[in-house]
Amino acid sequence: xxxxxxxxxxxxxxxxxxxxxxxxxxxxxxxxxxxxxxxxxxxxxxxxxxxxxxxxxxxxxxxxxxxxxxxxxxxxxxxxxxxxxxxxxxxxxxxxxxxxxxxxxxxxxxxxxxxxxxxxxxxxxxxxxxxxxxxxxxxxxxxxxxxxxxxxxxxxxxxxxxxxxxxxxxxxxxxxxxxxxxxxxxxxxxxxxxxxxxxxxxxxxxxxxxxxxxxxxxxxxxxxxxxxxxxxxxxxxxxxxxxxxxxxxxxxxxxxxxxxxxxxxxxxxxxxxxxxxxxxxxxxxxxxxxxxxxxxxxxxxxxxxxxxxxxxxxxxxxxxxxxxxxxxxxxxxxxxxxxxxxxxxxxxxxxxxxxxxxxxxxxxxxxxxxxxxxxxxxxxxxxxxxxxxxxxxxxxxxxxxxxxxxxxxxxxxxxxxxxxxxxxxxxxxxxxxxxxxxxxxxxxxxxxxxxxxxxxxxxxxxxxxxxxxxxxxxxxxxxxxxxx
Length: 484
Prior knowledge:
alpha/beta
């Protein structure tokens, strides 16, 4: 059917994969870092000139990488707000998803619209600092002149698609990216311009939301550009997840998402109702503490990071001799305990050993994420298989403990640029539909992610006992924390 490319513009680099449109086989790849200075004191800057994304894209595509490519899909970092003026110029640098300056504005917005339940009913999420709707409120409060000049709202992948097409009058996005803004409802599939006005002080233009298989346009050279999507949605599409699959990401914080045919309602806002890149939904639950808890425990035991902690943990036994760690070290999002601290329970003479504390750290982190999985299951989301992502997924202790605690088959995929692969698969879909070779309701049947498969097996009852031990301590320490 041809050759397609997928590019993923993440927070720090651009990765491009060029694939056979029919099979998904990777033919060649490109990479370039973003030419962005780190923030003062290190880390990612809150404000970024989007031109840096274009320069990185050009470098990654150098050397004829895109020769003979017929369609391109774009994945990009989620929640980066790109405010434009009436002429399509940048009002200010993009505000990235990593920015936390808007946390006060999140609380302000929540109160202005009637609280958590009102937001959850309206758009399927509760405002947090990362979301574009909250950044709009922050812009209004701290840069009122820029807020007044803002006439149109885009995110990173919207802006890149628009640039690749030569900045046409038509500006587009996809439902996946739109669903994380805080002013689009995955349940109704419609924008909420009233919430833009609530946050920004006036209404602003919003992109046309394309169906997953639709093309955003064609360049003058005849290169088809698909709708594009957020990095999370592209990665799920690249992995090939479907109904019954969940993805657990082990970063400093944690996240759980699963594929579901309908938007998942949650009055308390614990479940964020996202849309995916295929026409389905990706209900998601986030935790504030994941690998953060492992690193802190390793430091406490004077170990060189999570790898050494993993080795030590495997010298203990399930349940860590009764030692339980509630890993709420930086407060917690799920359950909603923003002012909580971590709790270490079950201290007895026999449990006060380094290996048991190491084991308790892994069990606490994974039980917290298993709680998040159960929130989805409790709302009708089927979870039979869990894809485990992040560097911590490679740790032997995680692989040994996770299947029994999650109560499901666990797949640890081989390393790959899954977001770029998802963008390429989207491009192949749009190209096939445009040529009449593919059904709009059926994406190209590329092979899903390969990896190590781990089964709970005979350890399932032991895992459930560990879950019960953890839940007992959690409920004693924070009664009713998971009451809807």
